[in-house]
Write a structure and sequence with these properties.
With 486 residues, the chain is an alpha/beta fold. Helix content is 41%, strand content 15%. It is built from 16 helices and twelve strands. Strands 2-3-4-1-5-6-7 form a seven-stranded mixed beta sheet. It has a three-stranded antiparallel beta sheet with strand order 8-9-12, with no helix packed on it. Strand 6, helix 14 (349-366) and strand 7 form a beta-alpha-beta unit. The longest helix has 23 residues, at 254-276. The structure holds guanosine-5'-triphosphate and magnesium ion. Residues 42-43, 104-105 line the site of magnesium ion. The site of guanosine-5'-triphosphate has 23 residues, from helix 2.
Length: 486
């Protein structure tokens, strides 16, 4: 990444980090980035993590909690005033009180959780104040996928975008934009209306890819789909153009205007995001919805692998830049986690994890990623189901039991959102794993899962609500922050 930023940026990152470190002397802090493509489960993960720490949830594989060394975990003011706060209370209210999944978030947000703990070693107790501030940063994976743009000029960007648009899987979705862009004359005088039509058509094509049932992964620019407060600004009103020659853009031409806006997008959107957020992270979790991809078929799995490769490439370390090497905080642990494992029986969890591991290994190899410890996990941040068995003739079948969301269907039955139902999830992951081996990629039989409502929380005799149930959230915590509380 270092090669893509200028010295000025490096210096700023270094200064930011030094100030951070200085502040860190007062209260040691760790920045945890949580990312993933939209609907991957970021909001649910953060909510469950905080809820379990604050309420002393069951986390047997998280050392500090298991050995009773955490005396208190509580929310504090976040350090960055310009970043929206992660609306933890709203999300908990949705999950726990209403038993509905939280709304989609679509932007960056942050939350500070402070943990008071006792060090495991007598030596540590002597020197450490036993307080860690965990700054959790939730940001869209789509924004991260913009980082490669920093290494591309407008002509490179146009060429790559046009190549991708012509691929058979995307050709029908991009047809309208391609026709419009093909008809535009790059050398004609710049015209706002032409630029707007092209940008809108390009954004519509990117959105169609996103909405497509093949679950095609997103293409940059990420803010075209999630513009936030930049909607309608010139930095977001451009589009790639086909067949650009190697010569420079004519002053005052459509191409020159597009070029300037593309550069503005990099300067005003991509760089600050990288500098202010990604470059300051210490740890990272990348959530992936492997279940959905397996469900949607081989193209979707291949696409998920491509997205994961690109995401990992963004975290790859710079090539020996002195400044970043010395000052910048660097991500030293990355967890790739497949969420929503509560949709399958625990006998299949290891299989799901094996599938994800293979996907991750290939992505790591293709991104020639190195420099951080990478771990892979199949988990459910919130466990919406429990397990049971059902007798069928002489067989005993393992089932999962939960309340399907109103409107979900299986075999012609439509659920009302209130009734608990036992579902036999099948041995599909096994099939998927086998098919994966054979086809060198993915399952060919689509797997169908029912979406469940969040679980009903049990209460203690004293009326206290217990913390949110999960699958392997404790393992995730141990890997991501366990060493900081040793
Ligand atoms: N059963 C189950 N479903 C989950 C879990 N995590 C997420 N989901 C489902 O996935 C959906 C998306 O989860 P979110 O946490 O909102 O995903 P996100 O990545 O924050 O999505 P955006 O904010 O849209 O980018 C939820 O509405 C749930 O339906 C989980 O641990 N178990
Ligand atoms: Mg979210």
């Amino acid at each position: 990444m270092a090669a893509l930023t200028s010295i000025g940026d490096e210096a700023r990152i270094a200064i930011d980090t030094l100030t951070g470190r200085a502040a860190g002397l007062v209260s040691p802090s760790l920045r945890l980035g949580v990312t993933g493509l939209s609907r991957a489960g970021k909001t649910v993960f953060i909510t469950a993590l905080v809820h379990n720490l604050v309420h002393g949830g069951r986390l047997p594989l998280f050392d500090a909690q298991k050995s009773g060394r955490i005396s208190r975990a509580y929310l504090e003011h976040q350090p960055d005033d310009a970043v929206p706060r992660f609306q933890y209370e709203d999300h908990v209210a949705a999950l726990v009180d209403e038993r509905i999944w939280p709304d989609s978030t679509r932007a960056i947000s942050e939350l500070r959780l402070t943990i008071d703990y006792e060090s495991a070693s007598g030596w540590g107790r002597l020197f450490s104040r036993g307080r860690l501030s965990l700054d959790v940063v939730d940001y869209p994976g789509e924004w991260l996928l913009d980082l490669p743009l920093l290494g591309k000029d407008y002509a490179d960007f146009s060429r790559d975008a046009c190549d991708l648009a012509r691929l058979p899987v995307r050709a029908d979705l991009s047809a309208e934009w391609a026709a419009l862009a093909g008809a535009a004359d790059p050398d004609a005088p710049a015209d706002e209306m032409t630029a707007r039509r092209l940008a809108e058509s390009f954004a519509a094509y990117l959105k169609a890819c996103k909405d497509d049932e093949r679950a095609l992964s997103t293409l940059p620019p990420g803010r075209f789909l999630m513009p936030g407060d930049l909607e309608g600004s010139p930095a977001l009103t451009f589009s790639p153009l086909p067949e650009l020659g190697g010569e420079r853009a004519k002053p005052g031409s459509l191409r020159a205007m597009m070029e300037r806006r593309y550069e503005a997008y990099k300067t005003h959107v991509v760089k600050p995001f990288f500098r202010e957020h990604v470059a300051r992270l210490d740890r990272q979790i990348v959530l992936i919805d492997a279940m959905q991809a397996l469900n949607a078929g081989p193209e979707a799995v291949a696409d998920l692998e491509r997205a994961l490769t690109e995401i990992l490439a963004c975290f790859r370390q710079g090539r020996g830049n002195m400044l970043t090497g010395l000052f910048s905080r660097r991500i030293d642990r990355i967890l790739i986690a497949a969420t929503k494992a509560d949709h399958i029986h625990h006998e299949s969890h290891d299989r799901l994890q094996a599938i994800v591991r293979r996907l991750a290994d290939r992505a790591i190899e293709r991104a020639s990623f190195s420099g951080a410890e990478v771990e892979v996990l199949a988990m459910a941040a919130v466990r919406a189901t429990r397990e049971g068995t059902v007798k069928q003739g002489r067989d005993t079948l393992p089932v999962i039991i939960g309340t399907p969301i109103a409107g979900e269907r299986i075999n012609g039955d439509t659920f009302d959102g209130e009734t608990e139902t036992a579902i036999f999830p099948g041995d599909l992951p096994e099939k998927a794993a086998a098919a994966w081996k054979d086809s060198g990629g993915a399952a060919d039989a689509p797997i169908r899962f029912v979406r469940f409502r969040p679980p009903k929380l049990e209460r203690t005799a004293a009326g206290l609500t217990l913390s949110l149930p999960h699958i392997r959230l404790d393992r995730a915590l141990q890997f991501l922050i366990g060493d900081q509380l040793a």
